[in-house]
Amino acid sequence: MSLPEEVMSPSQAEEIVSRLKFDADGLIPAIVQDASTRQVLTVAYMSRETVKLSLTRGETWFWSRSRQEIWHKGETSGNTQKVVEMHLDCDGDALLVLVHPSGPACHTGAQSCFHQRLFSAVPVEERPFGRFPETVDRLVKTIKDRRKHRPEGSYTSYLFTQGRDKILKKIGEESAETIIAAKNRSRTELTAESADLFYHLLVLLANEEVEFEEVLGELDRRSGKGPATPPEPK
């Protein structure tokens, strides 16, 4: 596998590394998290060299304590992790690395290394609320898969086959039904209709090849948490 292009200069990376507190073995723990879903993917260790590689090459590199060597995540599997952000904890001795994964993080093929539930205070089937990042990410991936493969009998496939006008018609219908549910002051009805509206909006975004993260980015900018975007000329 060829190395990714340099995205940060060595001097910039060196300045960041100088702020980190490494343990007696010259390592620092790194919690790797999906930048989109905030799902924790894995916990690994980085050396000074692998921190610099991750920063300059833009993909995760770690230190293998068992093999005592540097390894590039995805070097053999192709499941690389593009570094989006890197955060340092308050004590300076642990890293949080936000990434866009190109495949499963776990060597077992699971999306996350933390896929073995040991305890849950509330059984999954009894949870009253969904988990926003995970739920949306799973739904978006399913919608994109339906758009690509168009399995028979799938309502989502039907919408994509019918095209933009059909999708827009459904959004109009679901918007009206959501308004009616709110006017009726029915919590159950409003929840169901809002879910229908949100689902059809995600279908529209997929049809128009607009990533949901772009919408989140726009919301961040509006709340002052993202990079400013100059207004479009009128």
Could you walk me through the main structural features you see in this protein, from its secondary elements to its overall organization?
This protein is an alpha+beta fold and 234 residues long. The chain has two domains: 10-101, Ubiquitin-like (UB roll); 129-222, MazG-like (Helix Hairpins, Orthogonal Bundle). The protein has helices spanning 10-17, 48-57, 132-149, 155-162, 164-183, 187-207, 212-222; strands at 27-34, 40-47, 61-64, 69-72, 81-88, 95-101. Helix 3 crosses helix 4 (155-162), helix 3 (132-149) crosses helix 6 and helix 5 runs antiparallel to helix 6. The longest helix has 21 residues, at 187-207. It is elongated.
Descriptors:
234 residues, alpha+beta, Ubiquitin-like (UB roll), Helix Hairpins, four-stranded mixed beta sheet, 6 strands, elongated
Helix content: 40-55%
Q: What is the residue-averaged pLDDT?
A: 90
CATH superfamily of the largest domain: MazG-like
N/C terminus separation: 47 Å
How many distinct domains? 2
Give the CA-based shape: elongated
Query: Radius of gyration from the CA trace?
Result: 22 Å
Total number of helices:
7
**Do you know the CATH topology of the largest domain?**
Helix Hairpins
Largest sheet, strands/sense/barrel: 4 strands, mixed
Count of extended strands: 6
CATH architecture of the largest domain: Orthogonal Bundle
| Succession of helices and strands | HEEHEEEEHHHHH
Strand order of the main beta sheet, please? 2-1-6-5
